[in-house]
Design a protein that fits this description.
Residues 99-118 are annotated as: Disordered. It holds the Pfam family F-box. The protein is α+β, with helices and mostly antiparallel strands. It folds into 3 domains: 3-87, no CATH class; 90-127, no CATH class; 145-347, Jelly Rolls (Sandwich). The protein is built from 8 helices and 21 strands. It has helices at residues 50-57, 62-68, 73-79, 82-88, 93-97, 113-118, 121-130, 274-277, and strands spanning 3-5, 11-13, 19-21, 32-35, 38-41, 133-135, 140-144, 151-156, 161-162, 171-174, 184-187, 193-200, 208-223, 230-236, 244-248, 268-269, 272-273, 295-296, 302-311, 321-328, 336-347. Strands 6, 7, 8, 10, 11, 13, 18, 19 and 21 form a 9-stranded antiparallel beta sheet that branches. Strands 9-12-20-14-15 form a 5-stranded antiparallel beta sheet, with no helix packed on it. A hairpin with a 5-residue loop joins strand 18 and strand 19 (302-311). The longest helix has 10 residues, at 121-130. The two termini are 19 Å apart.
Amino acid sequence: MFKFILGGGTQKKTDVGVGVDVGGGEEQEEGRISCGTVMVDHIDLQNLPEGCIANVVSLTTPRDACRLSSVSRSFKSASESDAVWDRFIPPETHTILSLQSPSSSVSSSPSSTSNSKSKSKKELYLTLCDNPVLIEQGKMSFSLEKSSGKKCYMISARALSIVWADTPHYWKWISLPDSRFEEVAELVSVCWLEIRGKIGRRMLSPSTLYKAYLVFKSTAGAYGFDHQPVEVSVGMLGGEEEPTRGRVFLDAERGQNTAYHIAPGPRRIGLINRRHFLGYQSSQPREINEAQYPKERDDGWLEIELGEFFCQGGGDGGDGELEMACLEVTGGHWKGGLIVQGIEIRPKVKD
């Protein structure tokens, strides 16, 4: 945090991370201003060159920059300048945007020539936060995490490795208007569920803790997930560190289902559903761990955490691929009614 010391006295801190000393302090000399470790003569903050303020603000975070813009007019001008927001946009962003898919679903493409020239760096930043851009021939989306500017990706279902995905008896490919990708995978019926996704380590932001999520929906006739957990993991392929592993449930109703009811469809059997018929209807109540169940996203889809991974910074990041997996291959129970949009990898946001 940068502290501006005006005069001597007791230090007061604002909620924007700027400390102002307005009385006689013991550690600072009266009538002097401190910025980091540099001491200069007393000066009115309003008289600081905008470039100086912008340089300081650019060393904070996008969230802090927005807060600092409320300090004064000079801070507002500096905090919204291209010099500041250009520092918040990852340097390889323009290379990524040059690979943008022609079928990108973003209504206002941030990489188009006219938009790039007319948009300020702050506008470009916010566009990339709110409107994921399709890359890799439309099989992956790219965006920025709003509070930090770290890179986010979603790997489409088409780019995932899904066992039997091209066998219509088990999976089918459909289009949904609320998906960012042209196709999503709908699970018809399988007893072996295996979904894996990979992403190059260098594509991620360095020195960042990432979390991976399976993004999906359940159909009205979904079955087989309420009392049968799936195994999830996230880790480097061939890495020395053990992947993070866990067990989660893909039941959108959080395990609370109706055992006996009439529900039309080919995957229902008479007055009872298939999970009861196959003998894995649980009669014992199970303690619910919220982290093991899906949560609804702002876009209306569901997501379940697969695990986390810390991407090293600098030259320690190295090459290699990060793999995310979601498996249910041991129970032998049939399941269906899952619609997979993809796997999202995004930075963990501090509470």
